[in-house]
Amino acid sequence: MILFTAIASATGLSALAVVLSRNIVRSAVWLLFTLVGVSLLYFLLGAEFVGATQLIVYVGGTMVLVVFGVMLTAQQQFLKIRTRPQEWIVGIVLAGALFTLLATVSLRLGEGRTTAPTESMPGTGQLGVGFLTTYLLPFEIISVHLLVVLIGAAYLARAKRRPREGVASD
Amino acid sequence: MKELFSFLPSPFDLLAACLVIGIILISFIAVSGLFFTWLERKVSGRIQDRLGPTRVGKYGLLQSVADAIKLITKEDTSPDVADKFLFKLAPYLALCASFVAFVSLPFGNGIVGHNLNVAAFFILAVLSSEVFGVILAGYASGSKWSLFGGIREAAQVVSYEVPRSMCVLIPVIVAGTLNLNTIGVQQTGFFWQWNLFHDPFTFVAFFIFFIVATASCKRAPFDLAEAESELVAGFHTEYSGIRWSIFFMAEYASMFAVSGAAAILFLGGWHSGLLPFEPSLELGWFGHVLNVVVFVLKGWLLVFVMMWMRWSLPRLRIDQVMMTCLKYFLPISCVLLVGVCLWELFVPTIVGQVWRWASAVVCALGLVVLLVQMLTKALPGPKAGLPGAWEGMPTPLLRAKSA
């Protein structure tokens, strides 16, 4: 409980730092710490697979690309973020609405349950079997969706070459 | 480990256990780092036909201690244009990532910081985040050389992650678990029980994994992030003193981590391959010590091979590095993955056994023959002539003869 509180508050603080930091690269680094903190919370709660997935997908994959992109685009005029007052107001209203929504939903989730679940977390074996039997259709839809996104990204990122004579353009 | 501290109240027993495990692991990393720097110099010396360190201690063994003292007392500088906070943070990020991988690496049967059920996956996840230290160092230094190094490293590591994960998946399919301790226990017995000899696909996968792991540790011939002939020293150009040495500690730590993972996944982990039983169950604490010694020796042997590769091969160009990954390693590892699935599903047990025996015996015999040849071959004496275009040119030896 003490550990959970410590890690959760550290995660929360670094999430605040993401927003409050003026330097865009530092924001990205604070975001990295936030994501690592979330995965630590997963590990602490016994969800090892989710924690490791959080690490490999967000920390190892997404954050590398984010930092990479930020580093390449962080020129003088984009490096410092200047926020205008009206943007502050819109941001605060949106964040407050989202927070109220999440808080009410998560408080209502715990209503029916009086004791903490005692059974251990399902392992990777059960997860895999679940994916290939009960949840096969959603799993397939997501896989195909990701494949489409992948091909689309590759198509967009492809170097545009002018079609030469005698050579098919595609 | 947590049970040892059960006299402490609830979160503190966990913290005390973490502290003890952390201290043991960080001392191991530091000591093997010292040993590896010495070994690297000796290996490079031998390959480049010179002696390496000889002055400090017997065989120059204390050279790394002398270096460490020099590095600690050196001034800790940072450039004016650097982003100071990130510049100071970067080496620790790199070290953290390699260090955390050791937590779930079993050194013997049950001798593991934390026996995770998804240890193989966890090690991959953690080692892939080591790149952050390098990217941030490259950016925060405020130097073009460093930035180039960081960007190359990011591109390289993100691409090499894919074949590396696939090669880890191959022994995992054979074992049916992600728990590294269980994978180690499954390979109990003589050396033909190792996953390396399970089928032709795991045999190839080991070599692919080893090369790809070398690349993801940014070791030569894949050390594009440093590339001292082009980028001064790449991402650590601006670093000096203790922060520079932390980068190298992280590099040696991740070299040992991937070598240890390769040993567990393919080479029987802590089993020497010469005993038909699990040593820790039959021999008690002596068996545990034997396990740890065998595992560490296997890890060091693989690190030695990495050094050997580094000093023998020239550095690849960046486009060659990317091409090797995307055009060769990726398709090969896909084929191996499909192949191992088909082998598991359709090949009868007897064929598997025959392959296991045949490949193991051929490999062992080949290794013995090679070792005997290397040890008994007469050393080449100095030649009295030059090869190639210089043929016939007078050399000191020829001149001495004619005089």
The appropriate CATH architecture of the largest domain in chain A is: Up-down Bundle
Q: Which sheet architecture does the biggest sheet of chain B show?
A: none
Low-confidence stretches of chain A: none
Strand share of the residues of chain A? under 5%
Categorize the overall geometry of chain A.
globular
Task: Name the CATH homologous superfamily of the largest domain in chain A.
Answer: NADH-ubiquinone/plastoquinone oxidoreductase chain 6, subunit NuoJ
Instruction: Report the principal-axis shape of chain B.
Output: globular
How helical, in percent, are the residues of chain A? over 70%
Number of strands of chain A: 0
Structural class of chain B: mainly alpha
Question: What percentage of residues of chain B falls in helices of 4 or more residues?
Answer: 55-70%
Report on this model:
The complex is a heterodimer of chains A (170) and B (403). Chain A folds into two domains: 87 residues, Up-down Bundle (Four Helix Bundle (Hemerythrin (Met), subunit A)), CATH 1.20.120.1200; 35 residues. Chain A is built from seven helices and no strands. The radius of gyration of chain B is 23 Å and the shape is globular. Chain B contains 14 helices and no strands. The mean pLDDT of chain B is 82. At the A-B interface, α2 and α3 of A face α1, α3, α4, α5 and α6 of B.
Brief account:
In chain A, 74% of the residues lie in helices and 0% in strands. Chain A is mainly α.
Write the layout of secondary structure elements.
The complex is a heterodimer of chains A (170) and B (403).
Chain A: H1 2-20, H2 24-44, H3 48-73, H4 76-79, H5 85-109, H6 124-132, H7 136-157
Chain B: H1 10-47, H2 63-73, H3 84-103, H4 119-128, H5 131-140, H6 144-175, H7 180-186, H8 200-216, H9 241-265, H10 279-282, H11 285-312, H12 318-346, H13 349-376, H14 396-402
Helix pairs in contact in B: 1-2, 1-9, 1-11, 2-9, 3-4, 3-5, 3-9, 4-6, 5-6, 6-8, 6-12, 8-9, 8-12, 9-11
